[in-house]
DNA sequence: TGAAATGTTGGGGCG
DNA sequence: ACGCCCCAACATTTC
């Protein structure tokens, strides 16, 4: 019997994995393969934090496969034909990816494999619905979230998740790299020592279970960065350690509480972002709203560096940027604040923030990252209006009132009184003044706001309708 | 999934 | 007792 190859990509799990289930049912011996491709030129090479996650997730997957995971390095269109030749496999299955380069790669590969007589099948393992399954009455992709969401909800429920295959008959003795030889982990310095994550399918399940304990308070709790009020599922979902169908099914069962309802909407945003990228391959690189093509972004290396390092002198911004660097993740409320600060107060091109997040987030996801940066910049689909400029002081006082979040990540401010924790520059002289060792703000918040309004207003005067690439 | 400026209202101090 | 002013508190509008 000739073997079948399951090509793992962003679906590092056994349960509800349609490609794996298909292979296990086929009666053929199964080869579970992961290919690390550092060779194909790509604008979005996997970032450092992603590689850290991948290392641990592959280790977990290999354990669940009882050591049968095959690791190969190289171009997918070289590795797959090679391993097919070695093992005489006559079938390949995978779950679909939706990044433009992945779509292009997989389309070519499918054709060439089929031309060699290899059976190829692909499945939906990453989304509730395919990007082409939710369309307007005119058959076009949605550009506004709310009608997209209404249509998604009205569709018949996404398919029920499948159980992991009862037993898998593996095809043995396939050459494999060692994971260590891929050197996915950071060395000198080891910036991952404070990462507090459990990559892998079990870790994903635990994260979901822990979230279910607090989901009833999600609607408001999700906005408080000093406490755990969010699901922290994003990296697990990105790597496919848990499927959106699995999350949907469990959360849906609690739909009587508004927290569950609010959270399902976030899964909806994930779907929305993925269909946006699928239908707009330039989403990560070009503003959807073409009026932004000639926007006068400022080149300010010093400001960008201060932002990345969490040295802007604005507490909630610095706390967020340091949380990102230290833990590989940032609370969503704070992502909006730091993004607004970079784009509006500093007038730096959103793509610079997008790139930094791509390199530093363990949940870096091309679709979510690009769509959300465009959203904050005001050039994306269903975008925030240009005049919506977060005041980081007010946001801090509203969502981190006791300063617990700032104190945790900006130790220079740990002893500052609550009243001044989000504006240490206002600490009067007789109380000691601003703490030494913490920078003064790199931009005057009022001036920065006015400058952004002036710059963005010139765009708003251009009444030409939004032009989206077709 | 804002913030700031401006407008309105109503209670209380006080001449 | 009355009107005037002040100013929270809330509402509206503007960016």
Which features does this protein show?
Serine Threonine Protein Phosphatase 5, Tetratricopeptide repeat, DNA-binding, 470 residues
Characterize the structure shown.
This protein has 470 residues and is mainly alpha-helical. The protein has 3 domains: 4-125, Rossmann fold (3-Layer(aba) Sandwich); 127-161 and 198-279, Serine Threonine Protein Phosphatase 5, Tetratricopeptide repeat; 290-461, DNA Cyclobutane Dipyrimidine Photolyase, subunit A, domain 3 (Orthogonal Bundle). Helix content is 44%, strand content 6%. It contains 18 helices and 5 strands. The protein has helices at 18-25, 48-64, 76-87, 100-115, 145-154, 201-214, 218-221, 234-238, 244-252, 258-279, 301-309, 315-327, 332-345, 350-360, 366-377, 392-399, 404-409, 445-461, and strands at 4-8, 30-36, 69-73, 91-95, 119-123. Strands 3-2-1-4-5 form a 5-stranded parallel β-sheet, with helices on both faces. Helix 5 packs across helix 10 and helix 12 crosses helix 13. It is globular and about 85 Å long. The protein binds a DNA duplex (15 and 15 nucleotides) through residues 223, 332-333, 336, 340, 375, 384-391, 394-395, 449, 453, 456-457, 460.
